Amino acid sequence: MTVSGLATPFGFQSFPNFTQGRQGNSVNKIVIHHMATTDYDSVPGIWNSRQASAHYGIGQDGQIRAYVDEDNTAWHAGDWGTNLTSIGIEHANVNLAPNYDIAQATIESSAKLVADIAKRYGFGQVVPYKNLFPHSQFTSTACPGQLKDKLQEIADRANTINNGGQSVPTQSTTTEQPAQPTSTGSSAIDKFKAGGDRFVLQGSFINNTCELQYGIYQVRSQELTAEPFSWRDNGIPTKLLEDLDDPQGRSFNDGGRVAFKKEYQRGTIDKYSENANAVGIDFLDGNGIIWFDADKFWNHA
Ligand SMILES: [Zn+2]
Do 20 and 160 fall into the same domain? Predict the structure, then answer.
């Protein structure tokens, strides 16, 4: 399962109108849509009755919701070959016809999500009509309204983000994080070493998915994990974690917020991988190293 760390699952795959897998294809483009509604919460429920779906939706305030696993094929482009090779992003409108305006906060979040997707799938530069398309490119439709004229703006912002202009903040870092060390200057690995190999990780992060792997329940969090991900090296056992959304039941539902238990929030880094920009920690001494992206880990202190 693949969901952007920027997104919160909402009605996630609660509708039938998408296809499991991508029939062997890989993602090489993003298709931009507008919702043609101001009712952000009505999506994706409408896809129970309409033969359509998309991977993500962005609200008027810039919130990003995930509706369909990126590894699955959403029905959004009106063209099957495009559906198989693309990620579809919906955008809420702030008014209806004839303007169908889009809030600037929505466009800003769109750029962040586009940057994140482009980075993860190795698009290189985001370029309109090369890897970023309006829905109308693939079928006869008025969608995406005025966003058709904003593709270059979205691409420019996304490229600035990916070219080191700034890191991609996630919702967890904008809501309940304490003051954090900034990660400008030397690399995160250098900073961990300079601090005597000590780490602190008190911040919460999203559990993108929780699975029974290698006989233990583990959480995958794209906010922390080194890529490429493997359950053997990068999964976080639930016994290390608090389930902040369900502290009693510890159900670890996908998309929930989790944090390390107090006793695991501080400790020593056991290994570094300079090549992978990763830090390795053996939380339960002798139970095996878990590898995290050094910058992501640093930024969650
Ligand atoms: Zn559309």
Answer: yes
